[in-house]
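Practice record 12: protein with iron/sulfur cluster.
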Amino acid sequence: MKTESTNPEASREVEAGKKPVVLSGIRATGRMHLGNYLGAMRDFVTLSERDDRECFFFVADLHTLTTLPDADQIRRNVPEIVLSYLAAGIDPERSTIYTQSSVPETSELFWLFSNLMPVGELLKSPSYKEKAQMHPDNINAGLLNYPVLMAADILGPRAHFVPVGEDQYTHLENARDIARRFNNRYGDFFPLPQPLQQSGIRVPGLDGTGKMGKSDGNTLDLVDTPDEMWKKLAPAVTDPARKTRKDPGNPDICNIYTIHTYVSTEEELNWVREGCTTAGIGCLDCKKTLHKNISDLLAEYQERHRDLSARKGYAEEVLREGARRARKVIGETVREAQDRMGVAAYRGSS
Ligand code: SF4
C-alpha cells in the first residue's frame, strides 16, 4: 500500500471509540488471477493486519448480475473468491467477509440513494458507457444504476477508506456525491469516503493488450498448476519485433518483461534486458525464468488454497458469519437513513 489519504474529511468523522472502516469489493465474474494478487490482494492482507482499521471485504454478486446472468457460474465463483481471500492471508476473525446479496439492507439503501442521484449523471458515467458498448445486447437498468448500488456498498458500513485503482475513482466520487447530498438534505451522517491508493501494480494481459482481466481470457490464474501456467505463458504475446530467435527485442514494450519487474530479481532483470536486446536469449528462455518465479511466489498461496478447499463448507461458513456481522452494521446505517428520510415510522421493532 503506497499512500493513505490523511484528508481530515474522512478521519474527523470516525466515531469516538471506533476504528476507521476500509471497504473493498470484487465482482464474481471468474477466477482470481495474478493481476488481482499483485495489484490488490496483497495490499488487502496488509490492511487487514492493521490493528487501527476495521476491514470489510465483500463479493459483489449483485453487481455481477449486470453482465453475467449465469446462475451456476456465479454460484461457483463466489466461494472460490472467498477461498482466494483466505488463502492470500485475510483472517475472517479480524475482517468481515460477506456477499452483497446476503445483506438485503444494502439494496434498501440503494433505493433510498436512487432518489438522490440524477439520471443525467448516471447516463454520463464512463463505466455505464463502456459496459453498454461491451454488452450491446444487454443494456439493462442494473448497468445504469451500478454507481448507486456501489454507493450503497460503500456507505452502508459507513466506510472511510476505499482502495481504488485509477479507473475506479469515478465510482468513489459518485459515492461521495451521494453522501454529500444526503448530509446536506438530512443532516451530517455519512463520512465522505477517501481513496486508498493501491500498489499501482498493473499486470498486463498475456495477449499483450491492456491489463489482466477475468473476463478477457488473458490471465494466469492463482490456482493454475505449473503445467497449466506454462501452457498459457509459452504462447503469450511478446515484442512483435522478435519474429525469430535471432531478432533482438525491446523489453520496454514487452508485457512479459513488465511482469518480470514484479516478480524477478534485479540480476534476472538485467539478464533479460541484456539477452533480449542482443538476441542472446530467446523469449522461451525469458518466459521459463518468469514461470519459475511466479510459481515460487504463489507456492505458499496455492498450498493454503488446497488446504482450505479440502475443508468442505468452510467458505460458506465464513460467508454466513460475515453476513451476520455486516447486516448488524449496515442495518443500523439503513435504519438511521430511513429515520432521517421520514420512511421509518411504521417499521416496528428490528
Ligand atoms: S526476451 Fe523476454 S523481454 Fe524480450 S521480447 Fe522476449 S519475452 Fe519479451
